[in-house]
Specification:
The chain is mainly α. It contains 7 helices and no strands. The chain is globular and about 45 Å long.
């Protein structure tokens, strides 16, 4: 529960931002990935969720909340003209979170410290599929700044 509460706190802070929704989504992947990487309680909660998720669905609440918050941001980003209007916000959310967690798992499996590089590559691949043509240049620059900010904190 403590690990879930820490994740909920981070999610709430991002959802309360007045920044464009797509900025919140990109920033959120870096922040949440950092929380999962740097906080021992959250890492332990993650392991327990994976190990016992088949038997008890209550530990999955932080993931469901993350999906819901990202889907709400994706819906807002569509309205703001940053995400392609033909996309389903829920599918966008699940795909981004799946890719984020996959990047984190690859870092763990390869025993490297390349999470920022992997998240940056993930977004470079996803932007053309998700972001509108008129917004892609802005978000590519935003990603470069975001990655640099997180590298500096490592």
């Amino acid at each position: 529960d403590e690990g879930a509460n820490l994740v909920f706190t981070e999610l709430s802070a991002m959802s309360a931002s007045f920044a464009p929704a797509m900025e919140n989504i990109v920033h959120g992947t870096f922040v949440i990935a950092r929380v999962f990487t740097s906080n021992k309680v959250v890492r332990t909660a993650e392991r327990l969720t994976v190990a016992f998720g088949k038997f008890d669905t209550s530990p999955s609440a932080p993931y469901a909340a993350w999906i819901d918050a990202t889907a709400a941001d994706a819906k807002r980003a569509i309205a703001e003209g940053d995400i392609r209007p033909e996309l389903d916000p829920r599918i966008v959310s699940e795909s981004i979170i799946g890719a984020t967690m996959g990047a984190r798992m690859l870092v763990q499996a390869t025993h490297t410290n390349e999470l920022i590089r992997r998240l940056t590559q993930m977004w470079e691949l996803l932007f053309p599929a998700v972001v509108t043509e008129t917004s892609i240049g802005y978000y590519s620059e935003f990603l470069a700044r975001e990655a640099l900010r997180h590298v500096q904190h490592d």
